[in-house]
Amino acid sequence: MSRDGEFVFATAQYESGDWDSAPLVPANLVDTLARYTSIPVAPRGVIVALSSVDLYRYPFVWLTGHLPVRFTQQERENLRRYLDRGGLLFVDDHNHDIDGAFHKTATEEVTRTAGPLVQLPNDHALYRSFFQFPEGPPTTSHELNGWGDNLVHKHLQAVMRDDRIAVLYSNKDYSSEWNYHPESKKFMSVDNTRFFVNMVVYALTR
To answer: What is the number of H-type helices and E-type strands within the chain?
Structure first.
């Protein structure tokens, strides 16, 4: 959060891989939060290093990429403290491929850092924290058109801290789905970024 209480969209920077693979996502999701909620939101996102104590300023952090992910020891220890202190990390596989290098390495790093990933039930409170998603996580066009692993992922995965989501993990490639200019929303019958609102509301109220 900023000094005046605004929500700040934070993108995680890590030393390995391509953390900045979806450059239009922050502006688009800032627009979404301002459009649908009364949550004060900063007009621009920030980039925060996983190894920095600045990480603790942000209740929700987005991490994505295509390439293999290997956290440094400092990144791992700092991220673990962030999660233990109540932060929520959303990790999205920009490849949408369960056999891909990002998926294999990112899930290994998340497990090593935070604990085991488990299937998040589709009736979890996340899916009704603002908008209603009775069938669980919304499907992306990249799943439906057969790209990547040619599979619709019916569930997200999570690392839990008691009954709280600490890490939310997606194979659905929301990074590609939401990597467009906010003006494009006016051409859509349903704004596909609305699920992001649920993530932020959940992070701010748990």
So the answer is: 6, 7
How many Å apart are CA 39 and CA 181, to the nearest integer? 21
| 78/85 Cα distance (integer angstroms) | 11
**What is the Cα gyration radius of the chain?**
16
Assess contact for 152 and 139: CB atoms under 8 A: yes
**CA–CA separation, 88 and 199 (whole Å):** 9
pLDDT (average), residues 142-156: 65
Environment class of 138 (CB within 10 Å of its CB; exposed 0-12, middle 13-18, buried 19+): middle
Distance CA 105, CA 137 (A): 23
pLDDT tens-digit readout, 114-147: 999 999 999 999 999 999 999 999 988 766 555 5
pTM: 0.92
Rounded distance between C-alpha atoms, residue 85 and residue 101, angstroms: 29
The C-alpha atoms of residue 97 and residue 72 are separated, in whole angstroms, by 24
pLDDT at 70 over 70: yes
Please check whether residue 182 is in contact with residue 31, taking contact to mean a CB–CB distance below 8 angstroms: yes
Using alpha carbons, select from 127, 118, 94 the residue that is nearest to residue 196: 127
CA distance 203 to 180: 24
